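seq:
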Amino acid sequence: QGAVEESGGGSVQAGGSRRLSCTASESFYGCMAWFRQAPGKEREYIAAISTGGRYTDYRDFVKGRFALSQDSAKNTVYLQMNSLKPEDAGIYSCAARGTSREDCSTAYLWYNVFGQGTQVTVSS
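struct:
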C-alpha cells in the first residue's frame, strides 16, 4: 500500500467541525486507522475502517461525534469530526495495512504504513 498522507488539520473552536483526509499512494485491500497523540499523552486509537467498507470501528469517546467515510476512487479515507472538544486536540495520524481479515486492529504497531500526522487544535 505504499505510503499514506494526512491533510485537513488546523484550528477550530470547541463545538466546531473538522474533516481530516488520509490518502494512500495506491489502492489496497486492508485497513486504515486514525490515531491521535496529545502533548504529554500516549498515542491513542480513534477509529478504523476496512477499505472494502464493511467494517468500521470507533472508540467510545468519539462515537456519535466522529464518522469515517471513504472515496475508493481517490484511495482516501475521511474522518469527519463534529462537536469537537478541547480534549480532542492533538496530532492525528493515519496508519494502514493490507490484510485479508475482515476486521481492523486497534493496535498502532499492527499497521505497517504510517503518515506524518496533522495537527488539530481545539480552542475553548
